[in-house]
Structures
1.
Amino acid sequence: MNLRKTFLAAIAVATSAFSASALAQDQETYNLSLAQTWGPNTPILAETTKHFAEMAEKMSDGRLKIRIDPSSKHKAPFGIFDMVRSGQYDLGHTASYYYKGTIPNAMYFTTIPFGLTAPEMYSWFYYGGGMDLMEQVYRPYGLLSFPGGNTGNQMGGWFRKEIKSLDDLKGLKMRTPGLAGEVMSELGVAVTNIPPGELFSALERGTIDAAEWVGPALDFPMGFQQIAKYYYSGWQEPGAEVQFLVNEKTWDKLPADLQEILRVAMRTAAYDMYIESYHENAMAWDKMKENYPDVQHKVFPPEVINALRKTTDKLLEQYAEKDPMARKIISSQRDYLKIVRKWTNISDKAYLESSATE
Amino acid sequence: MNLRKTFLAAIAVATSAFSASALAQDQETYNLSLAQTWGPNTPILAETTKHFAEMAEKMSDGRLKIRIDPSSKHKAPFGIFDMVRSGQYDLGHTASYYYKGTIPNAMYFTTIPFGLTAPEMYSWFYYGGGMDLMEQVYRPYGLLSFPGGNTGNQMGGWFRKEIKSLDDLKGLKMRTPGLAGEVMSELGVAVTNIPPGELFSALERGTIDAAEWVGPALDFPMGFQQIAKYYYSGWQEPGAEVQFLVNEKTWDKLPADLQEILRVAMRTAAYDMYIESYHENAMAWDKMKENYPDVQHKVFPPEVINALRKTTDKLLEQYAEKDPMARKIISSQRDYLKIVRKWTNISDKAYLESSATE
């Protein structure tokens, strides 16, 4: 690769009679920087950006070089939006619902409670108008945005006591952020925000009674299964998509082939993250069942689910009332769900139910 | 692009003092040919190869050119394996279970009745050992093989009469190919093979009583909903993956960057086909419900499902007994299913059930 570059440079000099700049520009190496919310070794998430950078470098024969800065380097895990917007970084990998304060309409591109599952969400993004809406939200900030990987269906959390009715939620101290936290709060839950590093001991000491994190793969290393016995299926993030951000000026500087290489590498890395999450969650849940036989899987009773749904609808309606663009995005996902879920029900759901052996 | 090529050629001549061959080789254009089972305009499937070729050409800045020959050109829709093997074509896009006669162990890479759903199947391919097994099957033929797109969960077929018990299957004349056909045949169904173009009139005239095709998106244009009222959820192809084949000699000739471009373009095109199928099936099913309100969705009764499963297990065991490699692949998928399905059940399945509003 280096030999080739030297050679090309030599030619560019030797053949100045030709318009050598075209060649020089085409073969230019672009050193891009990427800031991610995650640490350098966060399972699945940090692997996604590494995997993306490797594909882009290899496909471009080294003309794209992507330096990845983890949160330990830039110290601003929730400042990715600002840093890519300002041009301090060319690219970012983060979740759009972290920026509720600065760019509130972005959160719906991560997930909506009682919303789309991962394949339904990708269908909406790529074939149901989602990409266009996301562009309308991000372009005014000089940013391009692409789906960056799906966590799959997230679990509803770890509870020390079984939730048998709505009453059991009243006064319960729980860590659950974002829109899910707002909903839980309306139902009488004392929602608290505790840094990840302190969650285990907070649950152990009884500072909190319950904690929602992600799913088996990322929950297992947190150790919740050692303390809380009840593991609930989720309602709040049925297919959470993280995202890539690209500074528009960086993008516009790149030749068309490198733009396409970046686009396709991001798209594949995102899909791969969904599939890797699926695999890792399955493996971790299997290990959990084996090593912690006391852990019980639970589903919230209909009374609780109905209240969660009603409250979600109420809050979403409040957001929609305040902002026409919020209404546009929420409605687009809701309308799409009505159609796509019918298909999910007669295909995967019917199959999973009718072929169930236990 | 052409200008640049002319310019590069001129340089190669002008600078013969340098080792110009390195440059010439790196910038060489590779004209590859692809044979597909499908017609030039088959929905979803033909779009997948077009989409793949476009990505590869754009990412390689035109150094890869892929000519797609549909079945109307090469006249051998089920001869893709042989034509890519012999080098008559560089690439192929087909389904591995079409080659049961020549390479019987390949069929398990498409789908297995009562097997993995699409995300479970991709997890198995990419993280659960599937790719390695597929390589063991295809390499001896001088072929590389990659997942080529998933149809999603296929429907169980169109029936003119409701299937209420096992007895209703006896003597029923049905179009359903492959392993599903063998299973149905064991249960007393008169399985017939009728060319696609004649299926509609065969069902209309009563030559057959039922027809299994794919799913709403591809079934709708066939017109079955005009004749048969009962549309059953499937059991036989829960996540059918088509595939790309690449001639090994072609592959080995390509520089590493173009190999990676091909690999990633195939991977993305495959995932995109799954998502496009999801979307198109949802839209077609919605349209069907609206325009043909008589169409009823049905699930086979437990008695029928249990018999189908038992017979499937029996036939798979027979295949496994005859061939150690068949046993290895079947066992690998079955073992993986046992683990991954537990995760599907507490995530997507539990969510779909608990959040269901109707």
Note: The first helix of chain A runs from residue 2 to 14.
2.
Amino acid sequence: MSPPPAANPDRLLPADPGTRSIARELLARVEDLPIISPHGHVDAAMLELDTPFPDPATLLVSPDHYVTRLIHASGVPLERLRMGGATAVEPRDTWREFAKAWPLFDGTASGYWMRDSFQHVFGLSKEVNEENADALFDELDAKLQSPAFRPRQLFKNFNIEVLATTDDPLDDLAPHAAIAKDPTFTGRVLPTFRPDAYIKFAAAGWAGRVEKLIAVAGDGMAGYAGYIRALENRRRYFVEHGAVSADHGVRTAQTLRLDAVTAATLFDKACRGEATAADADVFEAHMTYQMARMSVEDGLVMTIHPGVFRNHHTESFNRFGADTGHDIPFAVSYTEALRPMLEDFGTAQGFHFIPFTIDETVFSREIAPLAGFYPSVYIGAPWWFLDAPDAMLRFRSAVTETAGFSRSSGFIDDTRAFCSIPARHNTSRRIEASFLARLVAESRVSEARAHEIIVDIVDAAPRRAFKL
Amino acid sequence: MSPPPAANPDRLLPADPGTRSIARELLARVEDLPIISPHGHVDAAMLELDTPFPDPATLLVSPDHYVTRLIHASGVPLERLRMGGATAVEPRDTWREFAKAWPLFDGTASGYWMRDSFQHVFGLSKEVNEENADALFDELDAKLQSPAFRPRQLFKNFNIEVLATTDDPLDDLAPHAAIAKDPTFTGRVLPTFRPDAYIKFAAAGWAGRVEKLIAVAGDGMAGYAGYIRALENRRRYFVEHGAVSADHGVRTAQTLRLDAVTAATLFDKACRGEATAADADVFEAHMTYQMARMSVEDGLVMTIHPGVFRNHHTESFNRFGADTGHDIPFAVSYTEALRPMLEDFGTAQGFHFIPFTIDETVFSREIAPLAGFYPSVYIGAPWWFLDAPDAMLRFRSAVTETAGFSRSSGFIDDTRAFCSIPARHNTSRRIEASFLARLVAESRVSEARAHEIIVDIVDAAPRRAFKL
Amino acid sequence: MSPPPAANPDRLLPADPGTRSIARELLARVEDLPIISPHGHVDAAMLELDTPFPDPATLLVSPDHYVTRLIHASGVPLERLRMGGATAVEPRDTWREFAKAWPLFDGTASGYWMRDSFQHVFGLSKEVNEENADALFDELDAKLQSPAFRPRQLFKNFNIEVLATTDDPLDDLAPHAAIAKDPTFTGRVLPTFRPDAYIKFAAAGWAGRVEKLIAVAGDGMAGYAGYIRALENRRRYFVEHGAVSADHGVRTAQTLRLDAVTAATLFDKACRGEATAADADVFEAHMTYQMARMSVEDGLVMTIHPGVFRNHHTESFNRFGADTGHDIPFAVSYTEALRPMLEDFGTAQGFHFIPFTIDETVFSREIAPLAGFYPSVYIGAPWWFLDAPDAMLRFRSAVTETAGFSRSSGFIDDTRAFCSIPARHNTSRRIEASFLARLVAESRVSEARAHEIIVDIVDAAPRRAFKL
């Protein structure tokens, strides 16, 4: 009898017995290392206040668009999943929908993480199914109300050493400051500067937001000059509050160096509400270049996440808001797009630039060759739809032969699902062990070196890439 | 001694003994299930009339451009393969060319299917080679003249439950009606509505064909309005004759919602022979949208097959016609292209939309994310050049981690080679078993669930996606 | 205890014991066959004069941009690697930088080749590391000064039967002629016609170079007509000196048939220094077509290497010149781009056209389908960043199911690193054995046929594709 998948200590390791045994040893070297999470979307206030988690559906289903999307695809309306603040159904009903849909998640990354956390975080007594949905809801609910499942206790159990959040440039970062001063909290919770909503002309409320930004942090300057100054100032504020990186949800990877007059003209046009979509693209490319320039100056690591068509289904967006499961990737290119920026900053001392992608064709074709030459370029770990066992193996296969193991960012969980963090990092460690074990089995890397490499990948790489 | 490849009961299963043993059990669950073939190109009249098959070359070589293309690449002129009605050589000579070229097919999908049907359909006594070409021609020829090899008997032997054909909108579907009424024929043979030749301005004879369409089915209306009405009427006629789907060999996946006046203007321009290539693209995109609208109304499942440059070599096209081996794929994108249609119909009740692709980069990047949100979108099985063991494994790996197993169309053989149907479906079942076996071996899916999933994939998925 | 990776006779073979044992037998069939290298960048004069090699750093590090790039990415300035003729540091210091960076190469193709040649060409006594850098420098240096490590002796030891160089159209090919006449030299050293610098308007010195070309070989004709005539004449000169192919480092795969007047107009514009970047692209596409036309006439095999953004980092280019590690691939397409040429020459008697790519998405989508129909098209082996174990396996998986094994070019080492040639060919043979062994283990190819196929791939394919 095999153990249930999530309880199998060999889960995700390769089937071939010889390779599996190598992988097991490699995994043992890193499985218990602390978690370093340099990019994600957990709310710092939750950790500051140690707020008890809500019921299981509100914690595990409604806010996680990785999970709700597949249930929606099976025909369940988003309101039944309490998306976008919908309250027409009870959390228990949402949980029942989830339990009914649970078999759909077999083979998916989300399904793997959930099963792993049901087993290892929550110690659920049974597999989820339609029949025991209510019982498991109650079992989980009871646990979530107990002190053992408070955020701070879980943070400790999860062995998290560093956790980065993602924050609005005007955020006062009070929770981060409070946590940093709290002697009872030993982990590092770092903010990340994310200025998208102040850069994309088409973002709802852009003009008002920018006006406020300039008023608050523009040193009395107006217009484009005040805007640039204010962004520089807020970045400095973030650095003072422990930030190590700035993140950019750009539409494409395009960069562009406009002169200040041209940039200001576009900016003013947008302030008057007259900018076209093409203007917005040009300005965004210019600002990506500017953000690199600021990173060179203030030392914040720069990460970009391009190539996603956000809010593909307008009706769902209008009714339930953003992040409701219909952000769809498209093809991107980096070689020509990044050139204006890399020409000027690609070899700049101390500059770290981490491109992520969901278009996996660029790993072997563009990103590995770029990271294999430019000291500033680190290869972003597989992101979003690619943050899954097979996709991670394809990633390593695609980049390693060109760029080796030293040029990667290390694992990024990129999640708002706090309870899934250990499962995600554990998955990554198992896959790294699996990939390296194959290279050892094929005499491409010595076993001794593989043991060094896996520790480097899991522990040193994120510290190095993110300057931790 | 290993058995010859086609006789090995473990063929296509993974080499690792533990994984193979899991795969064997999974295969046993589905190997003998009836064949459901919801998309293909077999001629219904052949089954109506139970016409004896012609000689082996005319049956197995000349009409199959998967086979003739590789022989042509090796230097054999198409006339020697009796393409496009060429009769300069005898069928036996064409068969000799095939036998001589047989080693070229090692490792190809076509070679695998042919070997499989030589073994399991025809029970050939020897491997094909140049020396025994004549003897095998005679052996096959004799079998093909016997009652055991008539179409209806093979249909029964193959255990086909449903077989869809592909038909011209003005086809009277008499063979389908005759088969449906025939109490001695137990399978379902369904027509499929394929209007390409009435939509693409550049298709030879477009204007005359459209004129006839409007005259026959336009309810007395003229021009664009009559055209739309006629298409609606003919779709209804197909539905009445059992059709469950409409298929579209579109150039790209672009969709577009034009107002009726703009569409009519383009249509009239084309009728006058004045439409440009750009006009044709716009009109085709508009009609793809219109076809989705009609599918929402009449319930026909909508399938698209974009991204193929048809008739790449003009000289071969002029001499031998279409489907002679030089249709070459190119890169396509779906995320932005499908949006106008999915905005309006993506969540429409009962709408089923199945995009196929030969550009495998879109599986993980676009199609799985789309099918993982929109209830209407089912992932088309690997098509054409991708309908092969390794490509099918890449497909499952690319889509499953995002969309699970429930969002796929199920296997489609898409073939005019009737005798290859069992080999194709059997290949697919073996690959599904292989993929699932690996997930079980890696503790990603429980063995019990894998047994449920493989039955779902093979049997329930095509029924679900195609409303059978 | 496992042997060190490079000493393991099973290195690169699949981990599964059954598959490995099949692969071992397949490898034994081809491991000792002579090396056929129909495309590369070794200097013929080195073999003519049998010049002793320089010190280890100047031989193995500085000229190899596969190696220097990753050291540069780790933060070492190119001058410390003695790039572009820099002499500020001693070779021994460059070697120390290499030794320090050596762990970065684990898992890379370059690392594998270097380790393999340290073991099998140089018989190094220890693994490279920072501590023994000096000792190994001295050990290698002493060997390189001994007669056993002269180019001609190594050429013999490497068992090279054919080695093609890459040459300027105006090169007098004296070294090739001298080698051909030398009875003590038994291998064939063949020139390759590479006219890029005479075709790309933007290449530095284009006008002067073209002027000289016309003066030398234009048969007294002037302008575009003289240019075409001169290219034809120089190709003939190459053919007379044993050339079998012409190579083209085109920007994209675009081909175009301009009439002579239009082409001449562009040419004249470029001579006046007035051509735009768009003009240059059009002219290059036209010349790719013209080169195909000439290949049809003079029989030179035509190879193209498109899709690389050369000299991505201008500052590094200005300081250190071309080929210094920042050539970065981008997405390309072939289906529409090659059509003008294939329409006219795709089925021309004796024409051989070999497209290479670093954009691996085109293997299954475009190149295999093209080579599976056009008798002239041979699939270029994995090139540059794709010339690595995993990438070669992906290549075989991507093309074989469509085009079988007969349509590939055979392995191309494409290297200027003479001492790495045996390692590169050996790697390829091991990967071919691994791929075929899997097909045998999965009953997709019989073991007997696999033994024939591997000999065909390794030995017959390059002779066939390159007319050797």
Note: Residues 53-149 of chain A form a domain with the uronate isomerase, domain 2, chain A fold (CATH 1.10.2020.10).
